[in-house]
Amino acid sequence: MSYPVYPQPAPPTVPVRPAGPGKPTIGIVAFIASVSAFVIGGVGIWLSGFMIGRLVRATEIPEIVSGLQDDAWVLAQEQALQAIDRSIGAFVVLITAWVLHMALAAWGLIQGIVATAMNRGRAWGIIAIVIALLSWTVLAWFTQEAILSGIMGNIPFMG
């Protein structure tokens, strides 16, 4: 049994060239997303540390002292509940800052990889990848500093 032989197609007359580098828009957007993740995370963490430092307000000190001396525990208890509310608010701000950082950094990382692979803003994409991958280490260090500074701000009021 024999099979028919089909003619081979003719080679193309115009050689196919790979596409050159396109507009760097994808890389620039990845860079902006990575930098935004770093800035928004840093501001949120700073705000959280500032809120922790404001658990006990300086204007409440005379009220707390008089409340403890006059057996007016209702006032002291109300102020303690307000301090707990402020600490919960600081925790919520801290978690929100980290979640926003994570989402924007992941976006910048993925889009930076795409920009680098597609050669559409390769340099911007590489910078975005580096910022997205390393910014969390700086923010982790900054988180410790912000929380400890906030706690240290309350030490004179604890006795």
UniProtKB/TrEMBL annotation:
Keywords: Membrane, Transmembrane, Transmembrane helix. The chain crosses the membrane at residues 26-47, 88-110, 122-142. This is Uncharacterized protein. It comes from Microbacterium sorbitolivorans.
